[in-house]
Amino acid sequence: MRNLLGLLLLSLCLSSSAYSKVYDYTHNNRLSLIEDPRTSVDLKVELIRSAKHHINIVTFFWDDSAVPARLAVELNKAHDRGVEVRILTSYIATLGTDPLGKGKRNLNLKSKNHATYSYLSLTPGTSFSVNNSLHEKIFVIDGEKAIIGGRNASNSSLSGKDLEVLMEGPVVNQVQDHFKRMFDFIIDQRISTHCNQNDSVDSQCVQEYKKLEFSSKDANFFPEQAGFTGGEDARILSHEALIHQKELGLSRSERLTQQDDILDTVTKIEFKKLRAYNYFIIPTPKYKKFLEDSLAEGDSIEMITNSYESAKFSSNYGYIYSIPDAMDLVEDGLELHQWQRNQKLNYVHEKVMIFDEDHVIVGSHNFGVGSTAVSNEIAIEFKSKPIADRLIEVFEYESGNPAITMKADLNFLEQEYEKYKMQIKILRMKIVEGILREIY
């Protein structure tokens, strides 16, 4: 059985890796879906106002639109009352959305009291990668409540089909643990680039960075979680591509096949029916084989993804590039639905998998090459029939409503291929392909 062997390998092999973190299931967690984007912003404002000790955030970018500006107002107030605030983001992603850094300047970066306030960005570029990124979306308040999912801190999140999970209980400590691993990693990168001058180490510079770190033994950050009777079993899945790249120095081809604990977990799950949201259909070879093998075994797979029009919110190059892979999978039996851009939510940014009737994965991973090759990612895996029922209800409504999605059968995709054949050929040229696959 695929699942049994996979779980044994996962527990015996991956957990022993020096550069990997696979978490065990925790019990009695309280999980809530955050479906509406405006509700998400309101909730985060409310949580910031309630914070007593710390707020830890990871976001792909932090721009100068109204959403992060509103959050910045509340974060500055929290900092002024002594709350420690830590924000991690990616330099290139933020530069692309806010080149003048106005969003960063909305944050009060000068410490006014004993609390630390940090805004640390990762600058990509190691080993010929153009897009090493902190792609997780993490929001932790006082180590007691956490939000992860697909939404970025930007107005762009208000017009996309997306999902987040609010969690309370023991699983929050796993989110915090992953945050600490990445925060410490970025601190070390900053020290190595900013504190080494003329073959000597500026000890004061090192101390300024080190004071931003926090201890895994500090109960303020890792409280003993009481749990909720009858709550969900859940665990965090993480893909720490930045640590892999630093420790292993992976080449471009090696990055495509590197250990990815999120997708490695997915490919070990047995199911009869899978419903999923995919940003674009640009799978790694391993993930594509998993889908092909599952379809060959008679399993049912339905996906909702972006269309040519809905992809325009970012760039429709990802859609055009994805057509050959989509054709292959549809020919193998995948039922594919494309999002139509004639409604309030213009595009699909949701990263969700629903296995059968109760097994769910929600997070930041796009289930594409870029997420595996160059991006840090996080997801929550849990068992809950009530939550799965809600997600299935939404999926069935969206996939069955022609005003929301259109079924992309093989005939349609072949027409798309003919229409964009020259662009596909250019995008799949070796140099262009390598860059584009890492972006998506």
TrEMBL record:
Residues 1-20 form the signal peptide. The keyword Signal applies. Residues 130-157, 344-371 form the PLD phosphodiesterase domain. InterPro entries: PLD-like_dom, PLipase_D/transphosphatidylase. SUPFAM superfamilies: Phospholipase D/nuclease. Residues 403-430 form a coiled coil. Keywords: Coiled coil, Signal. This is Phosphatidylserine/phosphatidylglycerophosphate/ cardiolipin synthase family protein.
